[in-house]
Description:
374 residues, Rossmann fold, 13 helices, alpha/beta
Amino acid sequence: MKIQAAVLETMGATRPYATSRPLRIDYLELAPPGPNEVLIRIKAAGLCHSDLSVINGDRPRPMPMALGHEAAGIVEQLGDGVADLAVGDHVVLVFVPSCGHCHPCAEGRPALCEPGAAANGAGTLLGGARRLTRQEQTINHHLGCSAFATHAVVSRRSAIKVDRELPFEHAALFGCAVLTGVGAVINTARVNAGSTVAVVGLGGVGLASLLGAVAAGARQVIAVDLADDKLALAQSLGATHAFNARGTDVIEAIREASSGGVDTAIEMAGATRAFEIAYRITRRGGTTVTAGLPRPDATWAMPVVNLVAEERTIKGSYVGTCVPLRDIPRYVDLFRAGRLPIDRLLSGSLALNEINRGFDLLHEGKAVRQIVLP
């Protein structure tokens, strides 16, 4: 079938993207779903820094590629072997498909699925196929989703069924921002009620972490960012303190406000300086979690003695250490109960042909979560 999709031809385009137009809205041929695959009509897709990091070349991927990984839609066709979904079901797409059989999957850690990671790196679906072409040229899939499009074929393992009453523009956020941000708090850091938490970096994922910390009952939630408007939003969402990271004494100020440092600091900016702040504001015996994705060559000189003398813990968090089939329904229930107001993260909606300008706004820090409505 013919579809429209946003295709990235090469990485590293100059900004502004509204002028250079790295994403080309093109007509592609989408093959029918193969075994254990489904055809999805995309109804909403979020613009995320993980997409931006492919556009600017920070996260190299095979080109050309149809981008987009945070989305929700409707099942339109089932491939052979798919018996637990039906045409008309509403689904959220998950950008790490899990095979269910590799060592991480067997340990209950599907976010680290080895075949899923290999397929994502190669630009294929979980089964190894590519279903997108353009005049006989093969187009790569982005993280098994390629959701900046009217339709997508994905692995059955990339789709989680959700209630049909959940609006698509809200449902899309659960596939990345909520799964990653809230999961970093609940699953990775295991934040307890009454503890102290700092979130460094207030993009969509960082603000979702902040909402997760509030929902978990943290008595002190400290927001740290470079943008005053995002700090103000964080406070309206439940942050007890807000600090602009440009301050020369920001680390000392946060440590003073938290009586020597927070129990858990979560870094969501994907920058070395942000991680350094998060580490240095963590108290003795505390935990620093990083879920930001910096450039692959980024390094940080860690004071190793602190790990021993202060019994520090540093933990990475990928996709919120999630089990999507378990976590997405839980987070949706929290949203419906008013305890996880992720709708407050929405900055506006875009048509597919406005997507390049949308990524300018994301790069400039002028938007939290924009939703493409194909």
